[in-house]
Amino acid sequence: MSSIRPWRTIERRRSRQIMVGDVAVGGDAPVTVQTMTNTPTCDARATIDQIRRCEEAGADIIRVSCPDVESTAALREIVRAANVPIVADIHFHYRRALEAADAGAACLRINPGNIGSAERVREVVNAAKANGCAIRIGVNAGSLEKNLLEKYGEPCPEALVESALDHIRLLEDHDFREYKVAVKASDVFLAVAAYQQLADAVDCPLHLGITEAGGLVGGTVKSSVGIGSLLWAGIGDTIRVSLSAEPEEEVRVGYEILKALGIRNRGVRVVSCPSCARQGFDVIRTVQTLEERLQHIKTPMSLSVLGCVVNGPGEARETDIGITGGGGGKHMVYLSGVTDHHVRDADMVDHIVELVEQKAAEIEAQALVEQGLDAAE
């Protein structure tokens, strides 16, 4: 069988690349996964603890809100402690942007048109330049400018794009090009249409998101539909899944979207059945337990967990490790797609975790060998 599968090909929109701290966004850089803390930023310790959990989940960039001077005062300690670039979320108070830039923020999330006079915009741009900050323009359907609402009558793709272009112009008038742009809406159709129009109008990196998407289940579905359809069309350089859930959950969902599209892999991709009366073990509880116990695995690999032999062998042939339910509490384990040995119910979960950890170690060791060979050449 040919390894070329054109129906899996995603032709990514070519954007220019910017740097957010030491993380490249746009161009040929990997699509990055972002989240945002929900602790009071002025509580540096609580915020740093939450950042640690998000880093462990794989966050590439983390945003913190800076609504007051106490928050920007704590930002310097937060930035020093973080292992990933920190974005300072600024809305109307331009002085918070100046303080955040001086405190070491890698990026300022700000809409230049919302912070007042041209002189204030100039000050913010100069602070960003002096401190090596990028800027993220964040247009939101829920906070469009009054003149655009009057012009268009309601939030629409054209209004979001016009707002973004107006903000972009303010930055480029000051010879500032280190920016990325988001045009978010809670309505999936509105957000997707706005991003599609903006992608044709600009060459900057685009930050994708469906804002105010909802809780863990509903928000995951909306975000997957919206963000996923844009990524499938090649649009998007960095993503944030906005959920009414802990921020580390946003990171995990973000990676699941990227994994589903084959854009970026991290950790274990689980293939599992919905279960039925044919199942030889409790598939639902087994998958839940495995997902929890395998969260520490960062190495990309695949695991199939199927309850019976109808689809189990076929799925197992396509995964690194697989298990298929059998009779009498005895189940078949597949390694690299080939039947290898049996395991009993009582030992199954522990055994699979051990196999995954061993496989991860093997892959990582092989990668180190290949890196050494490349360096030698």
UniProtKB/TrEMBL annotation:
It comes from the Bacteria. Its cofactor is [4Fe-4S] cluster. [4Fe-4S] cluster binds at C273, C276, C308, E315. Its EC number is 1.17.7.3. Gene3D superfamilies: Dihydropteroate synthase-like, Sulfite Reductase Hemoprotein, domain 1. Belongs to the IspG family. Converts 2C-methyl-D-erythritol 2,4-cyclodiphosphate (ME-2,4cPP) into 1-hydroxy-2-methyl-2-(E)-butenyl 4-diphosphate. This is 4-hydroxy-3-methylbut-2-en-1-yl diphosphate synthase (flavodoxin).
